[in-house]
Design goal:
Order of helices and strands: HHHHH
Shape: rod-shaped
Largest sheet: none
Number of strands: 0
Radius of gyration: 67 Å
Number of domains: 2
Helix content: over 70%
Structural class: mainly alpha
Strand content: under 5%
Length: 235
């Protein structure tokens, strides 16, 4: 590094001497090239100022030893041009730092937003799992209710068949009882009629009594029939 600085100082002094000899027509490109070299070596403004002072001392143009004021001013122009890359680098560094700061702020905001979005996502996942669990539980309850309903319907069908079978048995039983009772009544009426036919020629009073008895028997038979019919209707 030391040798590089010595070489840069020597080149600076030589370029400055050449520029001062050219005067106002002098080319400042070498000064800028030296400034870029200083940047490459990592030199700062004060480092380049010391190199410039050393070059002036060598050329006997420093304050108090200068040839002319005009020469000093030309030397300042050369130094300003050599210093420009360092200043640009500093400006670029400051801009980069500002950009980095902005990027850091943006990154922090994005991190906060991402964390918030992640929390919302986790909450959404929890809610979705709760809903899925509730739906699963509801589905299980619905399936159980459906099974219970089907079992109840089957029980009602069996009970209906049993009731209908019992009613049919009752109808058959009543029908048999009614048939037997009506047959007996009709048989009794037939017997009475035969008796009336035989006795009607000689015993008028007895005929009247038997007719009244026969009427009562007919009324009883009609009552029994109405009773049985009402029983069928209620069934």
């Amino acid at each position: 590094m030391k040798h590089q600085l010595i070489g840069l100082s020597q080149r600076y002094a030589a370029a400055l001497q050449k520029y001062l000899r050219q005067g106002a027509r002098g080319n400042l490109r070498p000064a800028r090239g030296l400034g870029l070299r200083a940047v490459a070596l990592g030199l700062e403004t004060l480092d380049l100022a010391r190199i410039h002072e050393q070059a002036l001392a060598i050329l006997k143009l420093s304050h108090g030893h200068g040839n002319t004021l005009k020469g000093v001013k030309h030397g300042e122009l050369f130094f300003t041009e050599a210093l420009r890359p360092i200043m640009e680098t500093h400006c670029s560094a400051r801009q980069s730092k500002m950009d980095l700061h902005r990027l850091s702020g943006t990154l922090n905001r994005r991190t906060v937003e991402l964390a918030s979005a992640n929390r919302r996502l986790q909450q959404g996942i929890v809610r979705r799992k709760r809903v899925e669990s509730a739906l699963t539980e509801s589905g299980q309850q619905y399936a159980k209710l459906l099974r219970d309903s089907l079992q109840l319907q089957e029980g009602l069908r069996q009970l209906t068949r049993q009731v209908l079978a019992a009613q049919e048995d009752d109808r058959k039983k009543i029908s048999l009882e009614l048939r037997d009772e009506i047959a007996q009544t009709l048989l009794g009426i037939n017997v009475r009629l035969l008796s009336l036919k035989l006795e009607g020629r000689s015993n008028t009073r007895g005929l009247k009594l038997k007719i009244a008895s026969t009427e009562r028997l007919v009324a009883k038979s009609a009552k029994s029939i109405r009773k049985v019919v009402r029983g069928f209707g209620n069934a």
